[in-house]
Design brief:
By secondary structure, the protein is of the alpha+beta class. The protein has helices spanning 80-86, 121-137, 177-180, 192-203, 216-229, 245-258, 270-289, 293-300, and strands at residues 8-14, 17-25, 66-71, 74-78, 93-101, 110-118, 139-147, 150-159, 162-168. The strands form two sheets. A seven-stranded mixed β-barrel has the order 1-2-6-9-8-7-5. Strands 3-4 form a two-stranded antiparallel ribbon. A hairpin with a 2-residue loop joins strand 1 (8-14) and strand 2. Helix 4 (192-203) runs parallel beside helix 6 and helix 5 (216-229) runs parallel beside helix 7.
Length: 301
């Protein structure tokens, strides 16, 4: 991938066939607005220091190590080199262990997606054979390897001209849905209330288009930064009114009345998407070059 650096390079193996592949990050948070912790009195950035919980003294980096708590306040010290030695050795090979139906893996197990591409022309033929065979068979592949110092299970799926490799959470890392939903009361909605809800769903049916959805948090933060730079009052949040059981039927009737028969699924054009990105970029640029009046006064003081 031109202009991008592979996060990992190795091989993918199926049967006795192998080819060189690279993993490239499919999702990035680098465009998000980030904040630093600032001293209110001076306007200076605050640095993080590590303090001994008993003596209250600062602990220098060379005096820090890892520890596992065996009892309250008692630890076994483990050197970082011991941790590194315990990590399974990597042979840089994504070994496919099974091909499964694409729908077999619950997406609650999905962790991070990566684009998987051949690293050279020699590997392209074997890569393409695997991709096309998986696509025709409508299967995904389950593979395992050491990624980023951890043994990871990876789900590999076809995606356009390439493959997507998604790291999977282990079973012990995924919390039980039964416990999460345990306190939801057992209710049955029927009659007009159910019919109205189904009508609203039918009217609002559409297709998933990622470009149609704004990152409203980022845009709100960008507007807040811009307002603070310009000395304006920050935007206020609009309170959400929760529909109470007694008002639910009336709210459903009102919703059905307001909906039109034509498709009114929210859409955002490329121009609007670029406009949103422009607002964030402008806010970041302004924030990097301009201090608020209050910060300037503190610096002067």
């Amino acid at each position: 991938m031109a202009g991008h650096r592979a996060q990992w390079k190795g091989f993918i193996k199926f049967g006795e066939v192998s080819c060189g592949v690279g993993l490239y990050t499919a999702a990035s948070t680098s465009e998000r607005i980030s904040f630093h912790t600032i001293n209110k009195l001076t306007g200076n950035r605050v640095n993080r220091v590590f303090i001994d919980s008993d003596t209250g003294k600062e602990v220098e980096r060379e005096d820090q190590t890892k520890g596992f708590e065996i009892e309250n306040g008692q630890y076994i010290m483990i050197d970082p080199e011991e941790v590194a030695a315990a990590i399974p050795e990597s042979n840089k090979t994504l070994t496919i262990e099974a091909f499964i139906p694409c729908s077999d893996v619950d997406d609650v197990y999905f962790d991070k997606p990566y684009y998987l591409v051949p690293t050279d022309r020699v590997s392209s033929d074997a890569f393409t054979a695997l991709r096309d065979a998986m696509d025709k068979s409508m299967v995904a592949a389950v593979a395992r390897t050491v990624l980023f110092r951890r043994m990871r299970t990876v789900l590999i799926r076809t995606h356009g001209k390439g493959l997507i490799a998604t790291t999977l959470q282990y079973d012990y890392e995924v919390r039980s849905s039964e416990k999460a939903f345990d306190e939801i009361p057992k209710l049955r909605i029927k009659g007009e209330m159910l019919d109205l809800a189904k009508h609203i769903i039918a009217t609002k049916k559409g297709t998933f288009d990622p470009a149609a959805f704004d990152d409203r948090y980022e845009e709100a933060v960008a507007e807040l930064v811009k307002a603070k730079i310009e000395g304006k009052a920050p935007p206020k949040r609009t309170a959400v009114k929760v529909s109470k059981p007694d008002d639910l039927l009336a709210a459903l009737r009102e919703s059905a009345k307001m909906l039109k028969s034509d498709d009114d699924t929210p859409k955002r054009s490329a121009a609007n998407a670029n406009k949103g990105a422009g607002r964030k970029a402008a806010a970041r640029a302004a924030a990097s070059k301009t201090r608020s009046p209050a910060a300037a006064e503190r610096k002067a003081g």
